[in-house]
Amino acid sequence: MGVLMTERANLVFHNKVIDGTAMKRLISRLIDHFGMAYTSHILDQVKTLGFQQATATSISLGIDDLLTIPSKGWLVQDAEQQSLILEKHHHYGNVHAVEKLRQSIEIWYATSEYLRQEMNTNFRMTDPFNPVHIMSFSGARGNASQVHQLVGMRGLMSDPQGQMIDLPIQSNLREGLSLTEYIISCYGARKGVVDTAVRTSDAGYLTRRLVEVVQHIVVRRTDCGTIRGISNFYSNINWSCISRRYIYGPTMHRHSKSRYWDWACQSIHNLSSTDNIDSNPLYL
Q1: Which residue from 150, 153, 154, 112 is spatially nearest to 131, judged by alpha carbons?
Q2: Closest residue by Cα to residue 159 from 190, 202, 124
Q3: Where is the RNA polymerase Rpb1 domain (predicted)?
Q4: Which has more pLDDT, 124 or 40?
Q5: Higher model confidence: residue 254 or residue 38?
Q6: What is the pLDDT of residues 220-240, one digit of tens each?
Q7: Under 8 Å between Cβ of 90 and 100
Q8: Exposure of 230 in the CB half-sphere (CA atoms within 13 A)
Q9: Which end of the chain offers a freer environment for a tag, N or C, measured as fewer CB atoms within 10 Å?
Q10: How would you classify residue 93: left for phi > 0, otherwise alpha for psi between -120 and 50, otherwise beta?
Q11: Which domains does the chain have, with CATH numbers?
């Protein structure tokens, strides 16, 4: 106990906001100082305190809590001006079409990332206790990317072929999307569902083709002579161990009495026997 009190005295007191990352570092520090048992006791107290404060705070999300970034207007105008200059260079033949697409994507990507960085600063300066800011940046619910689409800009989207579209979605979900922007974002919003459906159908089709190919094949020989097989040597193992680990007794009894009688069934037919398996290899 004396060592524990000494370690507790050496632990630095942190008087600051604890988010998800800081909590991980704190737990690691507690484990290093006090061990797993005492750390679990501390975490139980932290959990109880967290539930009490979350209930008393009653954080809820409203549309007025979605604060747009004031600098978004001139940032978008600057990106549009750069895109216009790039379009003129392409029109006069100074820039190739592929290079124009790459530079346009870089311009809008840089603008979107700058808005993402300004988002956290804007919340801290205007409303530090904003529910959106508390939930997302603490790691409790949501992430920075989702908040960026709510109050920043949705940014670049990909087409059904996976290529990036150089026409970005400048609006956010708080402002609302135009018809063109909504059509562009449709595939990006449903991409996960579409890909999952495609993969599921492909897997089922491949399985059916495999079954159709091998359904007429019947194994009739104990050893087919292939050099790519695996030979298993069983010795000094009783029958009960084999029956529990590798086969089901009733199933193998039925198979052994049917016309599909092979060397493997003969070897393990008598499950109640206490004899050991011989050292002959069993090719599977």
Answers
A1: 150
A2: 190
A3: 97-161, 176-230
A4: 40
A5: 38
A6: 777 667 777 665 555 444 444
A7: yes
A8: 3
A9: N
A10: left
A11: 2-57 (no CATH), 64-190 (1.10.132.30), 231-283 (no CATH)
Q: How far apart are CA 6 and CA 271, in angstroms?
A: 63
Q: How far apart are CA 18 and CA 110, in angstroms?
A: 30
pLDDT over 80 (residue 187)? no
Helices (H), the chain: 2-10, 20-57, 72-91, 97-126, 131-137, 144-151, 179-214, 239-245, 249-257, 263-267
SS3 283: strand
Sign for the pseudo-dihedral over CA of 259, 262, 266, 271: negative
By CB atoms closer than 10 A (0-12, 13-18, 19+), residue 169 is buried
Helices 72-91, 97-126: crossing angle, 10 deg rounding: 170
Round the average pLDDT of the chain to a whole number and report it: 75
Q: Please name which of 201, 190, 188, 194 lies closest in space to residue 155, comparing C-alpha atoms.
A: 188
Among candidate residues 126, 134, 89, the one with its CA nearest the CA of residue 107: 89
- Statement: the pTM of the whole predicted model exceeds 0.90: no
